[in-house]
Structure prediction request, 179 residues.
Amino acid sequence: MIKKTIRQKYFVSKELRISISLIILWTLLITAFFTYLAKELGGKIGHGTPLFIIIMFGYVAIVVVLTMLFSHRLIGPFQRLKTEIRLILAGDYGRRLNVRVKDDVYIKSFIGQINKLLDRIQNMHECQKDMINNFDSEILGILSDIEEKDGSREKLRESVLSLHKKIRDIADKQQRINE
Prediction:
């Protein structure tokens, strides 16, 4: 048995790396600014318990605000997207997922790929509807040919060949959708 080597991807998509880099950059900048303010404040009020309480409160506030801000940008769109997906599953196949201007770049990239998938699904759904309509009418035509008392074998043969041609045309159309 041949052992297959699986290569790991250490660098994920560019959009996700940019998003995480921005989060880290903003966190470092705000923390550095607050550290500078805490140092200046320590020089004015002296070291001790009040300074410790102010610094801890400041760092907690920074963590809470940044967590809420970045989680809103990264995770926030998913509730709205879940609602849009429910509408699509309910039969609104023409609907597409939308992103807000301030949504994360990685989310925007992801939604672009999902919308391409939805385009294919919509095309396949339309192809399926066409197929059902065509087959239904062709089969009813073949049945009427069979039920005719003076129907010829040649007429029945042509009807079956016509149905076969429509099946091939729809299969070709489906193949083009999948490409």
Summary: Residues 105-147 form the longest helix (43 residues). Helices lie at 14-45, 49-74, 77-89, 105-147, 153-178.
